[in-house]
Each structure stands twice: as structure tokens, then as C-alpha cells.
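User: Structure please.
Assistant: Input sequence and predicted structure:
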Amino acid sequence: MKKSLTALLIIGLVFIYTFPTCAAMHKWVDEKGRVWITDYPAPKKSNKQHGGVAQEQSKTEDAAATQPEGDRPEQKDSIPGLASLPEDVRKRINDIFQGEGSSLMSSSSIALVAGFMIVFAIVFYIYICLCLFLIARKLGVADAWTAWVPVVNLWTFVESAGKSWWWILIVALLAILSVVPVIGVVLGFVNVGIIIYLWTCISGNMGKNRWLGLLMLVPIVNLFYPAVLAFSKTEPIPDDGGSTTGMMSGRG
């Protein structure tokens, strides 16, 4: 796409720069059978060749028109006005157009990339849901299986942090408002901060240092920290009442 836009921009500048020279274009075939489209006439040939030039040129043009696209003779400087540009510029523009078909992604390549992204998204979703399910089950959250249900697993996440149901409304509302221009960026950062805070609560409920939840801010590390909580041993922290349920100590 960027190559196409660059080519169009260059062509537009060429047209503006060479507009007076575009009034008369000439198409001719040289002695090697190559088709030329230029803003200057065909070079003069010797008298021996002059007699059959018109007939040979007509035959060559007809043959080039009937040939498959891949077998046609190479066309040089097929863009009007290129002759007035430096040779390296003309070569660059021709290379862009000749290589455009191979540089753009084919439909099969696009389908392959899209398929890979879909598979990756599904695998990542299963991984996160599995970690949340194991965390919720270790903390004694009722109906831990809801961790597998989209949107509903937000309730599982908040319950694992030991927070009340209205925290769900806060997270959901900020997520919706984050699409609003300008202010949405600020609300998006606020929502990230709330989610990180909930992870610190989960860390504390799992019997670990709650500040370890800040690891969710570190790229790459935040991909593995949920698995650390899910597969590591839970060490409940007794609350003031002597209860051994770590999750309840964070509810607020």
C-alpha cells in the first residue's frame, strides 16, 4: 500500500513537472521488438530498413497485444514524461511498477496471516481463562467455571480480587468510555490502573506480596505472571478474625 501511494505521488509530480511535454506521445518498436512509449518520436533508421519499418512495427504491435501478459516484451519508460527525468529516477519509478504485483500480499498470504492471528487469539484466550479459573478455584470463588465465559469472567476476576460487584461496573464503564476521542485515552489509563490494582489484590489473596501485582505492567513478564499465580502454591494470609481465607481479606 505504501509503495502504491509513493508511486502515485511520484507520477503526480512528474505530470506537473512535465505537463508541456505530454501533449504529444509516441509509441514505436525498435529493431529488437521492444515497445516504447515516449514523448519523443522514434529514432530515424537507415534507408535499407525504412521500407519495412511500418509493416514490421504493425506486426510487432499486433503480436504484443495477443501475447500473454507475462510473455510481452518489456516496456521501458511507459509513463508519460519520464524521458525528461534523470535516469536513476526513471529506473526507480519503473521498478516500482514492475515489482508492485510481487510486493503486494496475495490473497492467500493475507488469509494465512489472518488465520494465524485468529489461532493465536484463541490460544491466548484459553491460556488466560485457564489461569483465571485455577486462581478462582484456589481462592474458593463460587462458580469458578465462569472464568471461561467471555465478559462474565470479569465477575470471576473481581471476585478473585475480593472486591464487591460494583467494581465490575467501574471496569466495564471505563472500558466503554475509552473509545471516546481525547478523554478516552485518559480513561483508558485509569482503567489499566484499576486492573493492575485488582491484580495486586489477587496477589495478596494468594499469600504473596501484593506488590508483585505490579509485574503486570512489565511487557512479556505480564504474560507469565498469571500462570505463576495459577500454578504456584497458595498460602492464605489469616485476617484479623483468624480466618484462613485470603480472598476475603481483600474484599472492599
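The chain has a mean pLDDT of 73.
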